[in-house]
Amino acid sequence: MTKHAAYPSEDMVAAVAAPAPAGRHFTSFQPLKSASLDCKKHASGAAVVGGSWFESMKASSPRCAADAEHGDDWMEKHPSALASFESLLAAAKGKQIVMFLDYDGTLSPIVEDPDRAIMSEEMREAVRRVAEHFPTAIVSGRCRDKVFNFVKLTELYYAGSHGMDIQGPANHLQATAEVVHFQAGSEFLPVIEEVFGTLTAKMEAIAGTKVEHNKYCLSVHFRCVREEEWNAVNEEVRSVLKDYPNLKLTHGRKVLEIRPSIKWDKGKALEFLLKSLGYAGRNDVFPIYIGDDRTDEDAFKVLRNMGQGIGILVSKLPKETAASYSLSDPAEVKEFLRKLAKSKGDAPTMKMMT
């Protein structure tokens, strides 16, 4: 692994004596009453619920994505990154590739219990090989410590809580008592803790919900909630947030995300990491961001505005996206990473950082 630039000293970078404590676990799982835990079966017999939020959630979180195929028009606009691999290499020729990877739905499959979203050893090896050649970061809505415990690769950059908590590779930090973290929105930690307790109590009444504490943000998962109760989840969360105007609500694939209302997201995290690596304002860098969720769109938009690198959406269904290319699932992500690592030996024109 080549040496990467250390994080600069900025107003929002804090030096602490030891790594932050491990992230909070999920609240206890509330099993569905008189129903199987097979979430794919929950759609049958669902009541028709109106409202733009409900329709938007159905569109962004398809239950049977594996049975669908991309439309020809969508694939023309967002071609397969595997089928287009040689042209991508040509675009990256002579430039430093920097890899950014979402976790859930990208490196691991979406599962009924998010606490069991374990990546395979084959995927871990593919990521490790890419990181040998290119600076590589995991950018996730999860707590940074939890993502690290899933991935278990010390040579990566980890940006947890939608990029609000970033740490550089452990094997590149100086061997001192201090570990440098980038942390945005630390003043919100007490509020996040308070809302976590309130939501945990509220969600006990809706079977199948989970509230995940991601340190700087919260995730309310409803993958195993009956479809006719989705609006109830949304309404309960919104009722709690009425008392917290400094928090904002967004949604992803059957998850509601609660974050501080600050100008920080996965796109900002991408920009910060590029700056930390010494690539701000340079045209010899080729960032690649792979993600599957709405929150990854902020990073895709940054790359489009930069006019450098590419965004790759992981999806089996056509979706509105700022990404330029697509991959169907984590299996294709793994194959793409393998090809990229192998290409390093075949394409010496791709520069390594020295």
TrEMBL record:
Gene3D superfamilies from the UniProt entry: HAD superfamily/HAD-like (3.40.50.1000)
Record's catalysed reaction(s): alpha,alpha-trehalose 6-phosphate + H2O = alpha,alpha-trehalose + phosphate
NCBIfam families: HAD-SF-IIB, T6PP
Function: Removes the phosphate from trehalose 6-phosphate to produce free trehalose.
Residues spanning the signal sequence: none
Keyword Hydrolase among UniProt keywords: yes
Annotated GO MF terms: trehalose-phosphatase activity
The protein's name: Trehalose 6-phosphate phosphatase
The organism's place on the tree of life at top rank: Eukaryota
Pathways per UniProt: Glycan biosynthesis; trehalose biosynthesis
Cofactor: a divalent metal cation
UniProt key word Hydrolase: yes
Transmembrane segments: none
GO biological process terms on file: trehalose biosynthetic process
PANTHER family, sorted: TREHALOSE 6-PHOSPHATE PHOSPHATASE, TREHALOSE 6-PHOSPHATE PHOSPHATASE RA3
Phylogenetic classification of the source organism: Eukaryota, Viridiplantae, Streptophyta, Embryophyta, Tracheophyta
